[in-house]
Amino acid sequence: MFSADDSSNDSVLDAASAVSSSAPPSPTKSARRPPAPLRLDSVGISPKDLVGKVVHRVRRSPTHPTVTLDCTDGTTYQLKIDGYNPLFPGVPKSLEMDPTLDPIFNPPSGQLFVDLTIEDCASITLMDKAYDARVELQGTRNEHWDQHHIGVAFKFREDAAGDRGRKSWHCVWATLAEYDSQQGGCVFRSYDDVYVDVLHRDRSPQKSPRKRRPDKRNSRAGSGDWTARM
After folding, report:
1. What is the three-class DSSP state of 177?
2. Which domain holds residue 52?
3. How far apart are CA 124 and CA 152, in angstroms?
């Protein structure tokens, strides 16, 4: 499914240097090993819960920064942005990913049927250059700072190994961005944490219980046995 060569760089985003102008920019630095959570009140589930899962469908929400992974065992997981509230969205947020993962997790039609086995999945710490050039807040002065944030990285069994015999990581991260309404340029860009959560499917509505007719031979007045069709 993927073909990635990790010989040029040991980071989880070694493929990011080949990003085209149309693809989202990738983080500048990343940690290779899964870090301790940056927040004490970590949300979601451990990414390790996805290891061994076979993804058969990927869905990208058209209205919210969410990617949904449907697995062959009937479980469903979502990649979300920590702190996102659909009622109070604030600065526009979006999920971005490296160019080899973008066609899979960001399908043009909104969903894509795949056959991908998650060989490894981990939270990673990233560091990127954030900036604020909004005139109404900063005047003519631009603010720049190092923003640490958490992404989620995947390895898939179907990936080809690189020259060193190792498979590359594929990373998903979250951005916050505002654009000038007149000029169109980006005037604010920062980053936030991505986490994995399980989506609990609603059970199909059950039919109303039907009373089973009592056996006249063994029935007693006022007795009854109720069963529900599943």
Report:
1. strand
2. 47-196
3. 6
Alpha-carbon torsion (77, 83, 87, 90), positive or negative: negative
- Separation between Cα atoms, residue 62 and residue 80, nearest integer Å: 14
Alpha helix (H) residue ranges in the chain: 102-105, 135-138
What is the C-alpha end-to-end distance of the chain, expressed in Å?
39
Q: Which among 124, 202, 168, 158 is positioned nearest to 54, based on CA atoms?
A: 158
Helix (H, G, I), strand (E, B) or coil at 76: strand
The answer to whether 123 and 151 are in contact (CB under 8 A) is yes
Domain membership of residue 137 (yes or no) is yes
Question: For residue 108, is it left (φ>0), alpha (ψ between -120 and 50) or beta?
Answer: alpha
CA–CA gap between residue 61 and residue 156 (Å, rounded): 23
Q: How confident is the model at residue 2 (pLDDT cuts 50, 70, 90)?
A: very low
User: CA-CA distance, 34 to 31, in Å (whole number)?
Assistant: 7
41 within a domain of the structure (yes/no): no
The pLDDT, as a whole number, for residue 194 is 98
Strands (E), 64-206: 67-71, 76-81, 93-97, 111-132, 143-156, 170-179, 186-192, 194-198
pTM across the whole model: 0.70
Domain count within the chain: 1
CA dist., res. 69 & res. 196, Å (int) = 10
Residue 22 resides in a domain: no
Task: Give a yes or no: residue 33 inside a domain.
Answer: no
Contact 176, 92 (CB under 8 A): yes
